[in-house]
Amino acid sequence: MTDISLSDPAMARKTAPPAEARSVRLPTQWIGVAPFFIFAVLFLILPTMYLIVGAFQDRDGGFTLTNIFKLFEQPTIRQSYMVSIKISLWSAVLGALAGLGIALAIVRGGLPEWVRSSTMTFSGVASNFAGVPLAFAFLATLGRLGLVTILLRDLFGFNLYATSFNLLSSWGLIAVYLYFQIPLMIVIITPALDGIKREWGEAAATLGATNWQYWRMVVIPVLWPSFLGTVILLFANAFGAIATAYAFTGSSLNIVPISLYAQIRGDVLGDPNLGYALAFGMIFITGLANIFYIWFRTRSERWLK
User: Fold this and answer.
1) DSSP code for 268
2) Are 201 and 214 in contact (CB under 8 A)?
């Protein structure tokens, strides 16, 4: 039998396709994602760059650091950042704890499957329910003439607003934010809970570990990066919300998104470049929060794969 080897130069020349027969293949695989990249560039990257450049310019277009210094020098701006951080942090922590409890109940609580499917469906819808409809829903429910307020007054003789309760306050806005923070936590943390293998609990029980030891030494360390990452994501989600806050409180609450809107809406007292600096500060804080979220999520995925 004749031994045919591809290392033979003559054979290699015969098997190689002619140069003129080779066709240039267009990168058609990028056509499907092209609309996403175009949308991201036009409505995310370019506006962000425009805001960053404007934060370091004066009214005449010259370079200046005055707008950045005003973020630290003006008391109202410092207070707006502190109030925004407070509202975002409390809504993130409370939403994460409540969402984690609900997610644990539907994943490991032995509830019927329809409870989980219904909860996940509602959470997917409620996590995106914000803006004017959400603000109106809370005002119509817990406002001074809201349904629950009137029922408590007429049926039980309890005046909710006589107890120093004020819906149009920081804690009122936190309660409104919890409406979409808790469902968002459920949607994000449920896959992490599903990633906890039952074999780990069986192995821990075989080795003589108690249920508390299993949770303290296995489950909590595995879930901790996912939990912290989700808290940071909820913080960024609340920190950048403006439609809900403005529709709910108007300009009565001094938070960064409302202060930003007041600076760039174009009235006599407005300073667009200071508004750009406020936006730059928000971009910096939310960007830093998202970096930490990605880092924590990467750590958690190592265990949950």
Assistant:
1) T
2) yes
Number of structural domains (the chain) is 1
Residue 222 belongs to some domain of the structure: yes
Distance CA 261, CA 275 (A): 7
* CA 274 distance to own-chain centroid: 25
* CA neighbor of 130 nearest in space, from 173, 96, 160, 163: 173
| 184: containing domain | 34-304
Question: pLDDT tens-digit profile of 164-212?
Answer: 888 888 888 999 999 999 999 999 999 888 888 888 888 888 888 888 8
How much of the chain exceeds pLDDT 90, in percent?
Answer: 24
Residue among 294, 255, 251, 280 nearest 177 (CA): 255
Length of the chain: 305
Q: CATH number for the domain including 229?
A: 1.10.3720.10
Q: How many CB atoms lie within 10 A of CB 220?
A: 11
